Amino acid sequence: MSVSDLSTVRIGFIGCGGVADLHARAIARCSAARLVAVSDRNDELAAAKAADWGADARATEQLLQADDIDVVYVLTPMESHIELAEAVLQRGKHVLVEKPVSYDLDGIRRLIDLAERQGKWCVPGHSYLYLPELARMKRLIGEGAVGQPLSMFMSEIYRMPDDRARLYHGPSIEVLCHQIYLMVAFLGAPRRIQSFAGAIRRELFPDGDEQVTVNAEFESGALAHLYVSWAGEDETADPWTFKLKVLGETGGMHFSRRDQVNGSVDVQREYPLYLEMFERQTEHLVRRCILGGEPPLSTMSDALRTMEIAAAVRRSFRNGTVEALTF
Predict the structure, then answer these.
(1) What is the pTM of this model?
(2) CA angle in degrees (0–180, nearest 5) for 248-251-253
(3) Distance between CA 206 and CA 60 in Å, rounded?
(4) Which residues, including other chains, have CB under 8 Å from residue 275's CB and lie 6 or more apart?
(5) How far apart are CA 143 and CA 147, in angstroms?
(6) Other beta carbons within 10 Å of 320
(7) Rounded to whole angstroms, how far apart are CA atoms 284 and 238?
(8) Can you give the residue ranges of the GFO/IDH/MocA-like oxidoreductase domain (predicted)?
């Protein structure tokens, strides 16, 4: 990739849903970036969000063709990611594709090839590795600081309200990709996985995956356990709202997204580390990748591996199988 001669990276959004608010806040805090324009299939939503963010509302094709936009964030539902990301790259712009990138594995492969041919960055919205705590864990594990890795435990637990649950696929599609790409980053790709899914509110989760658990086995002998639930909250003394633990032969490491909590019993709590990962990802994409020519911390090849494993997870809990993985 060539190093850009830009001083300010100009950004456009396709999609103005909830995650776009987080990206807009992150861009506003990056002095080397500016949100220029947004589009959405809902014109009224695009106009309202553009006014909130100090940007223009444009038709999607106008945004794709614009000379005043360097990178486009594809923030639409997953089903349209590949088509839109291809259109962005074909028009000579960098692209960030929100997670999950796609269950269309051939489509992800096309994005990898097209980005290489165009000389542009195509980056998945794998944001957790940009947090300093998790980047440090990855580095230390690679350096052997905890010895041979033995096990990894990771959970994400919260109650998804009924009205919001109707807007999304289940957590095996929407959320589990985070756990999978972190597992691969820390331990590599597993050789076998087995998963189970369970739904309490079956009318909201026809696939049966209101909560999902995954066991993974690695060639080294290491094991991993991943758990994602939209069924309830963990308000115990040691909450597993979002927790990650890696144990090795000579040590271990731990991370919780609740290490910092803002708010009180009368105010909805905020978890600043969640917003920080968007800010860190934006800073890295803008300053290190687009302006500096360095690679992202998670690549579209990582997204391909993640979604291959995610597909095996769904086959496992649907068919009651142990899935062997070859890459």
Answers:
(1) 0.92
(2) 85
(3) 33
(4) 22, 25, 26
(5) 9
(6) 10
(7) 32
(8) 135-253
pLDDT at 56 over 90: yes
> Averaged over 289-304, what is the pLDDT?
96
149, β-bridge pairs = 248
CA 261 centroid distance within chain: 21
What confidence score (pLDDT) does residue 267 get? Answer: 44
**Residue given tokens 């909450």 in the structure block:** 239
Q: Are strands 211-217 and 192-198 parallel, antiparallel or unpaired?
A: antiparallel
Judge whether residue 65 has pLDDT over 50: yes
pLDDT score for 227: 98
Two tokens at 174? 């929407």
Phi-psi region of 188 (alpha: psi -120 to 50; beta: other; left: phi over 0): left
pLDDT above 50 for 3:
no
What backbone torsions phi and psi does residue 325 show, to the nearest 5 degrees?
-115, 130
Residue labelled with tokens 């649907």 = 318
pLDDT over threshold 50, residue 1? no
Which helix (DSSP H) or strand (DSSP E) does residue 276 occupy? helix 272-283
